[in-house]
């Protein structure tokens, strides 16, 4: 499951593809992290995570939630991984997942920055075009002020 703070739904990856699951945003889930980046079987709020998944009609044997953070440490959303395996997630798997999520967040940040810069570039091009037209008219009027 993947959700962003501004969206009222989860993105769920299943064999049928990506689907959106509508849900009530839960500030409680954000508070469950208690300034940590993951919720795993050792976390005090792990049972709250399992209960939250049950509210979404998701039955699983194990789950792992990752708090997706911007580089400035503000929250962007959450990723929740779950399956029916009885064994807990190993530390190496968790570290690999954290590295992957960090790379994912960097790519999301780059995409947002690219879109913002592209919009600013388009505005700059429009302003430059208007400025060029203005100076062209002024230049013409200064060279030949009485010619139509």
The fourth-level CATH homologous superfamily is: GAF domain
As laid out across the biggest beta sheet, the strand order is: 1-6-5-4
Count of individual beta strands = 6
CATH fold annotation: Beta-Lactamase
Taken together, the total number of domains comes to 1
User: What is the share of helical residues?
Assistant: 40-55%
Structural class: alpha+beta
CATH class: Alpha Beta
Low-confidence stretches: none
The span between the termini is: 68 Å
Shape designation? elongated
Order of helices and strands: EEEHEHEEH
CATH architecture annotation name: 2-Layer Sandwich
Mean pLDDT metric: 86
Indicate the radius of gyration in whole angstroms.
25 Å
Largest beta-sheet details: 4 strands, antiparallel
Alpha plus pi helix count: 3
Kindly estimate the percentage of residues that lie in beta strands according to DSSP.
15-25%
Question: Would you kindly provide a written description of the structure presented here, covering whatever features stand out?
Answer:
The chain is an alpha+beta fold. The protein has helices at residues 27-32, 46-55, 91-143; strands at residues 2-4, 9-14, 17-22, 38-39, 62-69, 75-83. It has one domain (2-112): Beta-Lactamase, CATH 3.30.450.40. It contains three helices and six strands. 9% of the residues are buried.
Q: What key phrases describe this protein's structure?
A:
148 residues, Beta-Lactamase, four-stranded antiparallel sheet
How would you summarize this macromolecular structure in one to three sentences?
This protein is of the alpha+beta class.
